[in-house]
């Protein structure tokens, strides 16, 4: 059976280079990779990626969980407590299986760690640059900043919004509003774009309205729009407020207007009427984050990627 | 040391459910997962994800590589031969380390396999539905169809386009054109959106022009536009044709107009002038595809995801 040394010799490169090619960890030119793969093929060498990963598995890693300021504020105000707690529970539990111990810390003053996970949708470029300078692996959990090329794990809001807008179009609706949160948040922006593209692809006019659930008044929003056939809200909280305001005006949901939310928070199921929505897979996000930071820690497949989880459409009674 | 049986008993669920929670494979409610994790924590049970993956690693999987019709046509015409061959070389070599044997087959009439990889940017919803009915794991390589929730591996065209448009804006340019391929292709569409959003975010007017490199004439395109300060083309081939047409008109690149491509094909480096572009990480795509189909085959982290690889900006002489 061939050994890694034979491959290195045949390809005319170092053992370290062969290892980098096998583990996809570091700068190796395509030409060199091709040479290494050719040698691997000719010698019928069988590298064991998982075996080496398992060997390293005994190592203990120490990773900081750094919550964004907005998230800490939200937790204090209990506006969205179950969302991130589910993600972080999964992260910590699955992390253990990879030999990772997590510790919560201040995003502005992190302790020395092997790596970091920045949690929440409002980390800025300044924070990113600060973490870049620490020269340790890190990733964004539930956030993405275009053009920064940082590993991140997000929900595919674009896809879910595109899907559900098409669903409403197929029901025969033409006048479909989108009421969305502030577009500086990647989550809201991607849902907005999924809605807009689905409408444009169907030659329908996108009609949208920004609503900040912290500062704005839903009654004013509803007063200012023509009541449409359907409303897709960019989160469940907003959808619930829309339904309450419509009812005050004796507009029936879903008989007169179909209303759909996003997130599938725990209270969506028990709302009256139960809310049609797109389920966000919170614990899968945590689990993928644990796996991804582990890969970055051991230097496997380190080229930066965005991992985006598809949502699931949950049909309940707030829409026809 | 605790065993999986103890966890199952304490959580009041079956061993199979505990296993599904640990491996993230299958439908388990969040509530049940929480119970299982709580039991794992209290019993200090240490599951070995990687160990079980390694055990299964001895299995031989047989996976079909199904090239799209457009890709097969391109290969015959040798319009883009080195691009997909690099991806597939990496896929096959890394696949071996996971115990996967790949076989190329007709996308319309695939043989019986454990799973399938559909390669290329033009697989339709009809093809997707056909593969769905086979009830075997499959993924799209270099393609994504919004709203279909299929596992896929793509290049992050949005991110690269957003980055490079900002780069040109920071250079002081205001009149920046985007000449793009047909927008039914996800690759071109996402680059287009990255360009458009970057321009809009900087309060600049997006100016774009569709150019199909198979059917259109670049001379006519250049005749029909006001010559701008910079042109961002949605692939390298298009950028090269733009540069040739500008030169025929005695317009200098980069002195009069900066031109930037996308892909970093082999000939980009040796073009005159050498082409500034965004590098697509072809072998990393192949490697990630091998890993992802393996995960789907063994039932680990099966919730469908989109994996999107960030590009790298390569500054050469076709732009200032």
Automatic annotation (TrEMBL), chains A, B:
Keyword check for Repeat: no
Domain HTH lacI-type: from-to ranges: 2-56
Pfam name, any one: LacI
Keywords: DNA-binding, Transcription, Transcription regulation
Gene Ontology molecular-function annotations: DNA-binding transcription factor activity; transcription cis-regulatory region binding
InterPro entries: HTH_LacI (IPR000843), LacI/GalR-like_sensor (IPR046335), Lambda_DNA-bd_dom_sf (IPR010982), Peripla_BP_I (IPR028082)
CDD domains recorded: HTH_LacI, PBP1_LacI_sugar_binding-like
Name of the protein in its database record: Regulatory protein, LacI
Organism: Thermosipho melanesiensis (strain DSM 12029 / CIP 104789 / BI429)
């Amino acid at each position: 059976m061939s050994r890694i040394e034979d491959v290195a010799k045949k390809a005319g490169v170092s053992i370290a280079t062969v290892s980098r090619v096998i583990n996809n960890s570091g700068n190796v030119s395509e030409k060199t990779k091709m040479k290494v793969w050719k040698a691997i093929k000719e010698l019928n060498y069988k590298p064991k990626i998982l075996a080496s990963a398992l060997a390293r598995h005994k190592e203990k890693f120490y990773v900081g969980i750094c919550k964004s300021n907005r998230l800490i504020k939200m937790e204090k105000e209990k506006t969205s407590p179950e969302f991130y707690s589910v993600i972080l529970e999964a992260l910590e539990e699955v992390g253990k299986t990879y030999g990772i111990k997590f510790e919560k810390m201040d995003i502005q003053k992190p302790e020395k760690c092997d790596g970091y996970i920045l949690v929440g949708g409002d980390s800025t470029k300044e924070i990113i640059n600060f973490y870049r300078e620490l020269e340790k692996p890190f990733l964004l959990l539930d956030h993405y900043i275009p053009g920064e090329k940082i590993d991140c794990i997000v929900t595919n809001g674009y896809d879910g919004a595109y899907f559900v807008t098409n669903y409403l179009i197929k029901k025969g609706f033409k006048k479909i509003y989108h009421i969305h949160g502030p577009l500086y948040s990647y989550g809201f922006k991607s849902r907005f774009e999924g809605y807009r593209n689905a409408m444009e692809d169907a030659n329908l006019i996108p009609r949208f309205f920004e609503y900040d659930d912290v500062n704005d008044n839903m009654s004013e929003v509803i007063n200012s729009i023509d009541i449409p056939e359907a409303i897709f809200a960019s989160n469940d909280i907003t959808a619930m407020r829309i339904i309450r305001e419509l009812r005050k005006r004796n507009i029936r949901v879903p008989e007169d207007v179909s209303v759909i939310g996003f997130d599938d928070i725990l209270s969506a199921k028990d709302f009256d009427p139960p809310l049609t929505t797109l389920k966000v897979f919170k614990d899968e996000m945590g689990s993928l984050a644990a796996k991804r930071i582990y890969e970055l820690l051991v230097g496997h497949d380190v080229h930066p990627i965005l991992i985006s989880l598809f949502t699931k459409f949950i049909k309940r009674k707030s829409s026809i």
